[in-house]
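Example 3.2
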Amino acid sequence: MRGMTAVVLASGAGVVLGAGYAVGGQAGLFVLGGTLAAAALLAARLRLAGPPAQPPAAGPPRPAPNAQFPGYRALLGAFTEASASMRHFDLVARPVLLRLLAALLAGRRRIDLAKNPAAGGEVFGPDLWPLLDPARPPSTDSRAPGVSLDALAAIVERLEGL
């Protein structure tokens, strides 16, 4: 098939050059010969270069870190925001910590935190209890400093020790 294409192209070039000589003499032959040479060079360049390079495919979207653990990501976000303001702590992290405390007290000490929050405070300790006390209304102040990471670590350690 390539051989046939070359014969057709050479024949076409001969016809064009003959027509150029017939119309313009040597000047016509020279102009059309140069035009055919330039077209041949351009075609060869395009054929050798191939199609324009495409940017690499993005592929499937990369999953977020710990994508298979959405609960972990939610807790991480809750505790990261806890130090932003007291409102963030009270609305996001404190309910999680209270649920953990209630489950631990019920399972290990037979204390129902909903019915007897004072007993929960006695077991948890007076130093950190004000941060978790369910009787304390949640803060509405987004500017008040949140709970420090040291205090959060102390709360988690206390929960682990129950």
